[in-house]
């Protein structure tokens, strides 16, 4: 027998009895609307959610006490109101919980649904709940289906409201390092507008916030809230259908490849702190259970090395030159780790993919951590070129082969310029990190403007297709080829720039370093560093990079571990000079280079960007 027969409950029309229900309804609506601030109007319906922490804050014990006292029109016996209220609070907050149900019915202050909720509690608390004609639902019943609504006694006129809004009240909770397969109707716990960070070769990266209470981390073999008090800011790398650029099968393939590379890196017995691993991943499934999008979750960096190189405000005043060189050594060490311990090629090393995390300190306490990121083009060293068919998420490391082909990039080695003729090896990555080293050196010595100027000077115009790409080298199918001998090295034993065949399975090309790059290195050493103690350190870096790294024949390049050692030795000397500068004095480097005197340069107008002219006297 239902308690409703003994205890009259109603939704009163009086101001006093409505105030608490209306106040809670308004609080719930406000909390939900805060999650879609700055979101486009047409996207708000699919992004609204009620964070768990907000639910607990609004439907606390005291607010429920006031609500149920208002909904009770009178006690069955004098002095028993408190007992009946407490029992209903316990039925709402206990296990299984019914907080989500109550929040959904309060959200638009639907009196008939609130009355039904009280009826369910009456039946639940009755001495014979089995006599109740309907199934008594709980939060576990969400999401409702048409069938479960009928058997719970929900009038059909409310079904549409529930179907349209129930996802709001049960957003997904993400667990660290887990892969989540989410139905399209479920609500992901991201709040606010997702802000684009950068487009990528395999997926776009967005800044997102995970609602507080919806990120869990593992502790003592269990999952506990990882962000109980505030949203967690993360970066999402998103893989989806992008019209003519990439279909969903290709997006799924790219996602699987990168996910499996990251899993293998994480599961290796040896870890490296300067390699950025994911925090977890998500696949959103459509009605037919096929993927409609994927994403990888990462810690959000303060900025990328590319941002740092180009923004003088970021780069000045915080970090010593030797410190920057140390961070670069860390990246080369991470690359050596990938090559020698994990047999993995990165194949996309560039400033955009080196992320910088600040520690938040001030002055001498300020520090940075540089991390190598984005394994969208990575593959195993021994892997053969894979096909383009889509693979299941259970794909093993044997499927990790990936062709290193794409449009030419400025940091890309000559041997992977031509599509479908990739000859990527360990030293392919070494070329890329050598190019990055020169950009960092430009920043260290001359500042951000020099970085931008150097990059703009490296534009290469190809003869056959009239395309233009910035590259650190030129080929014999470019307009610049006839100027390849325009500049000499003034700091290498071989003064004349070399040319060599590019290792390739396709057409054979000659290549040489970009003459403007050689010009820049001479000017950097003999003008920007003239009569400065650190000239000797810059000289050593240029001798390593131009003499041992940026070689067209990849077999003449250093391996990553050897490059790391050479740069580390230079870094230690530079750091010692910064610690005790009085112990160092300027030494004329022309003597060591067997030059009669330091060369004098005359900069032609727009020397880096104009036609090549001999800069040396």
TrEMBL record:
Segments forming domain Protein kinase: 191-575
Keyword Kinase in record: yes
PROSITE patterns: PROTEIN_KINASE_DOM (PS50011)
Record GO terms (molecular function): ATP binding; protein serine/threonine kinase activity
InterPro entries assigned to the protein according to its UniProt record, in alphabetical order: Kinase-like_dom_sf, Prot_kinase_dom
CDD domains with a match to the protein in the record: PKc
Keyword Transcription regulation attached: no
Keyword annotations: Kinase, Transferase
UniProt signal peptide: none
PANTHER family in alphabetical order: INHIBITOR OF NUCLEAR FACTOR KAPPA-B KINASE EPSILON SUBUNIT HOMOLOG 1-RELATED (PTHR24359:SF1), SERINE/THREONINE-PROTEIN KINASE SBK1 (PTHR24359)
Protein name as annotated: Serine threonine kinase
Organism, scientific name: Curvularia clavata
């Amino acid at each position: 027998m239902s308690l409703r027969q003994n205890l009259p409950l109603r939704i009163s029309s009086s101001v006093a009895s409505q105030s608490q229900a209306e106040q809670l309804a308004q609080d719930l609506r406000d909390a939900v609307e805060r999650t879609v601030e700055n979101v486009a109007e047409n996207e708000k319906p699919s992004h609204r959610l009620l964070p768990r922490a907000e639910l607990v804050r609004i439907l606390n014990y005291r607010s429920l006490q006031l609500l149920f006292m208002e909904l009770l029109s009178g006690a069955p016996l004098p002095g028993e109101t408190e007992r009946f209220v407490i029992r209903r609070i316990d039925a709402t907050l206990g296990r299984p919980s019914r907080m989500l149900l109550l929040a959904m019915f309060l959200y638009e202050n639907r009196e008939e649904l609130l009355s039904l909720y009280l009826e369910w509690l009456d039946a639940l608390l009755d001495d014979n709940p089995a006599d109740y004609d309907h199934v008594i639902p709980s939060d576990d019943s969400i999401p409702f289906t048409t069938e479960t609504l009928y058997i719970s006694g929900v009038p059909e006129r409310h079904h549409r409201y529930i179907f349209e809004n129930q996802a709001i009240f049960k957003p997904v909770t993400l667990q660290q390092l887990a892969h989540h397969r989410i139905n399209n109707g479920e609500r992901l716990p991201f709040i606010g507008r997702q802000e684009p960070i950068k487009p990528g070769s395999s997926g776009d990266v967005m800044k997102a916030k995970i609602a507080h209470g919806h990120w869990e981390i593992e502790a003592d073999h269990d999952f506990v809230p990882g962000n109980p008090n505030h949203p967690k800011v993360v970066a999402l790398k998103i893989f989806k259908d992008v019209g003519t650029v990439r279909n969903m099968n290709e997006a799924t393939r790219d996602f699987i490849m990168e996910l499996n590379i990251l899993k293998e890196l994480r599961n290796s017995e040896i870890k490296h702190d300067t390699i950025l691993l994911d925090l977890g991943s998500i696949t959103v499934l459509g009605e037919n259970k096929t993927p409609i999008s994927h994403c990888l979750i990462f810690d959000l960096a303060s900025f990328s090395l590319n941002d740092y190189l180009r923004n003088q405000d970021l780069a000045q005043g915080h970090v010593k030159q030797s410190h920057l060189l140390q961070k670069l050594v860390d990246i080369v060490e991470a690359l050596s780790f990938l090559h020698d311990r994990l047999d993995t090629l990165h194949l996309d090393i560039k400033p955009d993919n080196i992320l910088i995390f600040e520690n938040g300190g001030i002055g001498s306490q300020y520090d940075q951590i540089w991390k190598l990121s984005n394994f969208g083009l990575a593959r195993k060293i021994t892997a053969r070129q894979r096909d383009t068919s889509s693979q299941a998420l259970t794909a093993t490391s044997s499927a990790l082969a990936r062709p290193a082909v794409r449009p030419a990039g400025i940091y890309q080695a000559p041997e992977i310029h031509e599509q479908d003729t990739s000859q990527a090896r360990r030293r392919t990555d070494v070329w890329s990190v050598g190019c990055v080293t020169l950009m960092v050196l430009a920043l260290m010595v001359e500042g951000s403007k020099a970085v931008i100027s150097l990059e703009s000077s490296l534009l290469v115009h190809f003869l056959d297709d009239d395309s233009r790409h910035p590259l650190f080298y030129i080929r014999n199918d470019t307009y610049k080829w006839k100027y390849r001998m325009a500049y000499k090295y003034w700091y290498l034993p071989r003064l004349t720039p070399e040319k060599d065949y590019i290792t390739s399975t396709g057409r054979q090309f000659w290549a040489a370093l970009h003459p403007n790059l050689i010009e820049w290195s001479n000017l950097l050493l003999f003008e920007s560093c003239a009569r400065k103690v650190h000239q000797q350190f810059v000289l050593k870096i240029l001798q390593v990079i131009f003499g041992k790294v940026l070689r067209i024949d990849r077999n003449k390049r250093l391996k990553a571990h050897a490059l790391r050692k050479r740069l580390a030795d230079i870094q230690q000397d530079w750091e010692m000079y910064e610690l005790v500068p009085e112990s160092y004095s300027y030494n004329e480097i022309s003597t060591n280079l067997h030059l009669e005197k330091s060369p004098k340069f005359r900069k032609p107008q727009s020397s880096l960007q104009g036609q090549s002219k001999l800069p040396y006297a």
